[in-house]
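Lab notebook page, bench 4
Experiment: in silico fold of construct C2
Operator: M.H.
Input chain length: 312 residues
Purpose: comparison with the prior construct
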Amino acid sequence: MYDVIIVGGGIAGLGAAIYCGRFQLKTAVVGEKVGGTIILTDDIANYPGFKQISGMDLFDKVQEHAQDYDIEIIQKKVNNVEKCKDGCFKVKTKDKTLQTKTIIFATGTEWKKLNVPGEKEFENKGVHYCALCDAPVYKDKVLAIVGGSDSAAKESLLLSKYGTQVYIIYRNEKIRAEPINLKRVQENKKIQIINNTNIIEIKGDKFVNSVTLDKEYNGSKELKLDAVFVAIGHTPISDLAKQIGVSIDKKGYIITNDDSATNLNGVYAAGDITNSKFKQAITGVAEGVKAAYNVYEYINNELPVCGCMDDE
């Protein structure tokens, strides 16, 4: 029986694990992939203590710190979560059933899709969702990034290091980047913003060679390019939490209070999966730390005696 299982192996989950280890809680971090979306970020300049660091390097430091404590990291997909009648929980992978007194969900999000003709057919053949992962193969090519967030702006700047031309295609009037990144985009001669425009089809033969727009740009709805990178937001991975009755908002994010607690006793959440408005690596880690502290308080002061037996 674990004191806490952290479902999800991103930076919020590992941040929680560090404090669970400090509180000497029997802890397991369970997730199909360790690292989360932070490791796909090229340049981080807003994490306290590091003027500039890559997402991978930052995560490696957090993981190394976590492994200083007596915690387990189990790299397996969680298929099911059950709430036992006595108040504890079962976390099931393909070949294991783990029992725990509490759970911290740090399952994060996945990329939203455009859902237009050609997107699925050309995925990884000119359609991508991570510039850091895939931009290097498009040296001296014409590229596009779809989206208007700060993430899209940063992706465009990374793409400009490889491509000869980068289009930002955004459905609204103005992109919503942080001022420093907006300035960098506007000063970059390789980047051109196409506002009030949507991609309605992605075309190619073996690989992408053009997209169709819903309005003309420079006299044509056909835009020749070699790759499309999609940065239109994320979908929360909250199905496991829903299975045990955790409250979810209209967008699918887990609702938490100031203590990172959900509506269920013994269940907490941290990071991008929560309904917090400001989603950053540092806020996700902070939520994980609060969750760990409140797990410790719950186990020592509120947890009922669990009669669930190790019967599986």
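Observations: The helical segments are 11-22, 55-66, 131-134, 150-159, 179-187, 239-243, 281-301. The chain has two domains: 2-110+234-301, 113-230.
Next step: discuss at group meeting.
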